[in-house]
Write a structure and sequence with these properties.
alpha/beta, Flavocytochrome C3, Chain A, domain 1, Methane Monooxygenase Hydroxylase, Chain G, domain 1, 4-stranded mixed β-sheet, 14 helices, about 20% strand, globular, binds succinic acid
Amino acid sequence: MIKKTDFLVIGTGIAGLSYALKAAEFGKVTIITKKQIKKTNTALAQGGVAAVFGPMDSFDLHIKDTLASGDGLCNKEVVAMVVKDGPERIRELVRLGAAFNKAGDGEEDFSLGQEGGHSAKRIVYAHDLTGKEIEDTLVRNVEAHRNITVLEDYIAVNLITFSSSIRSGLLVTQHENICCGAYVLNNQTGTIETFYSGITLLATGGASKVYLYTSNPDIATGDGIAMAYRAGASVANLEFVQFHPTCLFHPEAKNFLISEAVRGEGAVLVDSKGRRFMDKYSPDKELACRDVVARAIDSELKKTGADSVFLDITHKDPGFVKNRFPNIYSKCLEYGIDMTKEPIPVVPAAHYMCGGVATDLNGKTDIHRLYAVGETACTGLHGANRLASNSLLEALVYSHRAYHASVEEFKTISHKITVSLDLWDATSTTDSDEAIVVSHNWDEIRRLMWNYVGIVRSDKRLQRALRRIVNINEEINEYYWDFKVTSDLIELRNLATVAELIIRSALMRKESRGLHYNIGYPEKDDMNYLKHTILKKNL
Ligand code: SIN
């Protein structure tokens, strides 16, 4: 059976939900999510949303900081547009009910945080649970909307595309790739359902789970990026993986972030003897851009052989620390660390994909009727290194723009043309009795990426990684078509696809810029590499 909807939204983070709320004013929206609606990376975001509200701030300063962080690869038009749209998108969230910390009684008297690379205080936050506040607000509104259906435990397998020829006289001048929905695994029934949609929006978040150590939850397997690539969309700049400098280092802690906002409030980085080291690496010390801080920590760890460095905020008033960072304080306490009394052990971990599905200024991909927003997309805002707290901002601005553009595109769809959709054929597949293939490959990919494609890279290690991932991908593909599709297998295939794309992109950039550092080419090479790395599958 084919399920029809006007707008199919894949993903329930800030990007997908904000888009859905707007599109629902125009037509029927179906949102699918592979787990539960609030199981998103957004819900874990601690820092906040960068936007110009401060008396000492200006659009020009925010633009300048974003461009400096992006290290030559930001699209200037995109940066100006996102920065200038920011405050209005925050006001919208407030109107929907989001409560951000205030410094006064005025409607826009937000208490503003500071993070690395920002020359002014401009982070709008809700304690250290900003993402949760935004996610809860959006979910409340989405669940109350009669035009929106949310399907939990539904994981997209592949996009459905067809090719349409444009004729001019007798000549076929162009073949256009058009997306009209997705095949989706209903995890409850184990069957694949076919969704036909006017517009499809990818808002599936990032892919940092491709690395062994990450701040991201298990869901961050790059599903949207992999599906879009398989369907023929261009993906861009995947070599730029942002490693967050300060994730909690503790044997029992899985991916817990210690927000950059802690450094913004004065925390310092020290080694095991309590000595500060950031002054050796940057005049901005702990508040240098993330790539600089992460590489500095990596270098200290390699030099000393230590397991971690430490983040020290013990000089601040304990009451202030507990009130400003209630979540981080209580989480650390669960692991026996009282951050008001002792430094927190931290290490860098994969955090954010600056690359993704290439889009235009409206979040449109190069496949018709397919849009990508949030971490899934590469819009040109982040360039070679994302400025802290610019990601929630980008998601808000682009879901708004994608809404406008996609509604216009929706109006042009000729519903007279019926597309014959194939139903998913699962007749020749059987249940797998080799779950070990999935878990082994999953493990191997993440270890391989951490060891060979991490913070500091070399061509030799990248080549080695490429040889391995090509084999792994072959193995997964053989396995994929023989056995019944499961969500673990879908995620593994996506993870492996994205891993290969990251490696291939990293090999194409023979220079060091922003987050991509190759010891064989330690300098920036503007003559040859002041450009985006684009990969597109030959269909
Ligand atoms: C953080 O709180 O440090 C993360 C913020 C971000 O990644 O922008």
